[in-house]
Design goal:
283 residues, alpha/beta, 15 strands
Length: 283
């Protein structure tokens, strides 16, 4: 199984997952044109994507869903998300019930977030497991249990509480982000890993959905690496970005390797998407 974070942040999120000939996207928070441009750097075309799994209706995760559905790509979402996005043609998924596409299994996991029916996704190919866990309001024990045992985990580290408290956002928005249905802070993400326990931690972590105004990569990394050290666990820690397509990660049971054939994309700076409102201003 191969996983490439195409974009991560308040202006748009999408992750490519490949399993043999099967290619799916987790979220479509970019327009099809922008998705196509980024997929080139993962040596993939949009027309090769069979399905898109939407986590929830906020535009940084679902703005491209309707256009992709109209183009004939199967769009999967919970009933609440499909209704919120006006996706009458969506294939409805239910938390805890796996969808199988070729050798790839995709299982939704219910998350606490200020959306209609939000989920994260567990991905499996044989014994290899990966998880995409963002837009989660707090370190819930059931969420930690669901994602424990992943070989690769894309994990939200949205904000630093001090930066958020002192930052430019109005009080109401700060309260929503920090609330139980908002976003994981660096410390909450670390707490979620602590709940998993040393024996069930990922081989590689990709820190995701970092706020440009309320976090810094070095703060997120320090908090997560500190938690891993306390657990006596050594994991590779990468940081996903809004403007840079991440490396392709090859996931097998117990290990994750970087596909060196695609490393040129690591130095590729892509312009900020210029469409849509930044959803972080709404929550």
């Amino acid at each position: 199984m191969r996983v490439t974070v195409l974009s991560s942040g308040s202006s748009g999120n999408s992750t490519l997952v490949e399993s043999g000939p099967t290619r799916v996207l987790i979220d479509a928070g970019l327009t099809p044109r922008e998705l196509s441009r980024r997929l080139v750097h993962a040596q993939t075309r949009l027309e090769d994507v069979q399905a898109v799994f939407i986590t929830h209706e906020h535009s940084d995760h679902g703005v491209g869903a309707k256009a992709l559905a109209s183009a004939g790509i199967a769009v999967y979402a919970t009933a609440g998300t499909a209704n919120a996005l006006g996706l009458g043609q969506a294939k409805v998924v239910t938390a805890g019930v796996a969808v199988t596409l070729g050798e790839l299994s995709v299982t939704p996991v219910a998350l606490p977030h200020d959306a209609a029916e939000p989920v994260g996704y567990l991905l499996g190919e044989g014994e290899a497991r990966a998880g995409v866990l963002t837009d989660c309001g707090h370190a819930a024990a059931d969420v930690a249990a669901a994602f424990a045992g992943c070989d690769l985990l894309v994990l939200e580290t949205n904000h630093d509480p001090v930066m958020l408290a002192r930052g430019p956002y109005p009080a109401g928005l700060r309260q929503r982000i920090a609330g139980d249905n908002g976003h994981l802070s660096n410390q909450q993400a670390a707490a979620l890993l602590m709940q998993m326990g040393a024996g069930r931690l990922p081989a590689t972590l990709v820190l995701a959905h970092l706020s440009l105004k309320n976090n810094r990569p070095e703060l997120a990394r320090a908090e997560i690496e500190g938690a891993l050290a306390r657990l006596g666990h050594s994991a590779r820690v990468l940081i996903a970005a809004q403007k840079v397509v991440g490396p392709t990660l090859v996931v097998s049971r117990g290990q994750v390797e970087i596909d060196v054939a695609r490393t040129a994309q690591l130095a590729l700076g892509l312009p900020e998407p210029s469409y849509g409102r930044a959803p972080e201003t709404r929550r």
